[in-house]
Amino acid sequence: MDNYLVINNNQTVLLKDIPVLNYEDFLSLNTSFIDESTRHCVNYFAYKLHNKLKLICCIADDSNSTILLSSSEINVDETEYPSFTAKHLSFHIFEREIHENFGIKYSDHPWLKPVRFAYDRHDKNSTIDNYSFYQIDSEELHEVGVGPIHAGVIEPGHFRFICNGEQILHLEIQLGFQHRGIEQLFLNKTKLLQRTTLSESIAGDTVVGHTSTFVKLWESLCNYKADEDIQFARTLALELERIAIHTGDLSAISTDIAYQLGSSVFGRLRTPLINFFQIWCGNRLAKGLIRAGHSHFYFTKELAAQLENTLNAYEKDYSEMWNVFKELPSVLARLEKTGVVNLEQATAIGTVGMVAKASGLNRDIRASHPDNNYVDLKHEPITKRHGDVYSRTQIRNNEIEQSIEYIRKMLQNIPEETKERAPLSLPAPNSFCLSLTEGWRGEICHCAITDEKGDLMVYKIKDPSVHNWLALALAVRNNEISDFPVCNKSFNLSYCGHDI
């Protein structure tokens, strides 16, 4: 028998078909996979199975659009297990969560720092109040604490800097102030609409990304193939969400370098894009638009004409503003060579999305594991190589231009509305399913396991932010602390996507 199972994106398999290995073989297999640069871990999680802990590891092989599944069953007692992280740092976030939730002990994990202080964590005595931050004992150094309460409406998070004068030597980021228990809510809620609404609330700036991932997974569990018009609408909405958020981020980056014109113009240009979602489905964040097995909001030719007009007006002003922005010496002085994450670091810590691509690491689900209309669009990811704030800014610009091109191409061939849709069946029992989507921030992964009745037994969510928070901490080292805000905005990671 093979020691791993090969599946595709959005594929449902029987849970019993995932090979169960002893822990040593399980560790050796999955860490050896990561020795290939085209492979990376998209999810690694645990759940209680009788009196044992079951581990499932999902490794994406981007070279042939497959996911490699394997599992292991272990006892959680006083036994210490060797860690994946000691061999490949990219596993750190997954093993830290497993340790926090279930108490598994590792003999060689470099740093079992809490992930999110889950309400059902193994050690209730581990709290944010008694967390021990990394310290350096020196009279020449000082600490700067930022948060957890921030100005504006963003979620709480704490940033602890160790500085020598203005120079940052170390940044420790601690989240988990607002753990919401969304994964458990997916099990508690029994209606599809309730679960869909939950998926819309995982990260408020990625409604289309997370909801699309959930409904694709659910349709796979129900052995349902979405009609052409539904696939079209989901792809279109993903690219529109990408343009809108990237544009807003360019405004935020401009704000943090005190470039008021860029802040105002890019900020204004985001508005008509999200207003189009309001016209399309009645909500500017696209809530209500994506549903499993059906759609309340068919994309009509009249909507296409409105979107074309919106893009025409947007593109003219956007191009004019970007052409000024990209050549302004005062802008370039703040963005170039600031907040660098090099290719070696990006690979080692397992970055995804814009952060990976800005450092030269090609990771984009639209190309490596395509679904919906991305199969026909034949997406070509855009990468940079300097890994600085300017590279992450350029990625946004290039993806905005690329997404506009994709949308214009799609608007030339709008599928007819499907009048009679097949009903959704019940989810397959004793099954596992994994769905990947390239949101604007990077790869989103949802996994589900059903019991013998077909009810959800495990629901596991991974927002791309969890891969990239460590990259932000590395990026600011040796930068001046005044550069932290623009470094932070160039990543624009999600607090709520982390604190699920």
Question: What's a quick, concise take on this entry?
Answer:
The chain is an alpha+beta fold and 500 residues long.
Tag the structure with descriptive keywords.
globular; 500 residues; alpha+beta; Cytochrome-c3 Hydrogenase, chain B; Beta Polymerase, domain 2; single chain; 17 helices
Commentary on this structure:
- The protein contains 17 helices and 14 strands.
- It is α+β, with helices and mostly antiparallel strands.
- It has two domains: 5-115, Beta Polymerase, domain 2 (2-Layer Sandwich); 182-498, Cytochrome-c3 Hydrogenase, chain B.
- The strands form four sheets. Strands 1, 3, 4, 5 and 6 form a five-stranded mixed sheet that branches.
- Helix 2 links the parallel strand 7 (80-81) and strand 8.
- Helix 5 (207-221) runs antiparallel to helix 6 (228-256), helix 6 (228-256) runs antiparallel to helix 14 and helix 8 packs antiparallel against helix 14 (389-411).
- The chain is globular, with a radius of gyration of 22 Å.
- 46% of the residues are buried.
- The mean pLDDT is 95.
Q: What's the average pLDDT?
A: 95
Largest sheet: 5 strands, mixed
Percent range of helical residues: 40-55%
Tell me the distance between the termini.
Answer: 37 Å
Radius of gyration: 22 Å
Going by CATH, the homologous superfamily of the largest domain would be Cytochrome-c3 Hydrogenase, chain B
Shape field: globular
CATH class of the largest domain: Mainly Alpha
Q: Which consecutive residue ranges, at least 5 long each, have pLDDT under 50?
A: none
For the record, the count of structural domains works out to: 2
Please name the CATH topology of the largest domain.
Cytochrome-c3 Hydrogenase, chain B
**DSSP helix count?**
17
